[in-house]
Amino acid sequence: MDSTRLAHFKKLLLDELRQHARHVGEEQANAIDAADNEAKETADLALRDVMSELALRLGERESQMIADIDQALLRIKEGSYGVCGRCNRPIEDRRLEAMPTARYDSACQSSIENEKGDLRPTL
What we know:
Strand content: under 5%
Helix content: over 70%
Shape: elongated
Order of helices and strands: HHHH
Number of strands: 0
Structural class: mainly alpha
Distance between the termini: 20 Å
Number of helices: 4
Largest sheet: none
């Protein structure tokens, strides 16, 4: 992949990284604030615990997205970005535009999903 394309995808990844990092803090703060507002009495402590757990789960999802982006940025640095991790063929630009964190080309991704019996796409 040429340096212009790599710079383009690096920018996409960094933009997504900023967005997800911001969401982690916002979602956790909002859920904790809501729990604090709702749990004014001792009987509402269970609600606060549930809301805190929800905030952590939302944060985990965003944190996984951040980890995927970090891995893609590392692949750019190592020179393996845009190359399928399974067959070593180039990943289609169209796929990378839609999912800049993609580790596999479309054919290998489909094969992986079929092997797992997984109907939802993975990276």
